[in-house]
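call fold(seq) -> tokens
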Amino acid sequence: MKLAAIIVCFSLFFLIGCQSTQTTITQQLTPHTFQLMSVDQHTLANPTLTLRFSEGMRVNGFAGCNQFFGQGIISDDGFRVEQLGMTRKSCPTEINELEQLFFSMLSHTSTLKLNQDTLMLNGDNQLKFIKVTTHTE
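ret:
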């Protein structure tokens, strides 16, 4: 009986710890805007893509040609955006390819790492962002 109680206590501490980590990351991301600086360690010549985190983990931004929005989800598996929507402008090929890569990364679970002003998303590709603004709701 004591063993069962100990196991339950450790399980609760583990679950609370995971939730605490998710809450901490969410608090560190909001309310900030990040700008994409590199893809797979290749620095972008003209970085314009932004990713903004708002209250309730809502995300939006500019993908180089189109605006986007969705609901950010942080779980034990990583970060993804659900209900991803975007404008549908016709874009030059190079920008379109970057947008498609970015939208694919957002819609699939990626590892998210936040270190001061640097945000890294790692999945099929590695995206490096820097914090550019803090905003109020």
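The chain is about 30% helix and 40% strand.
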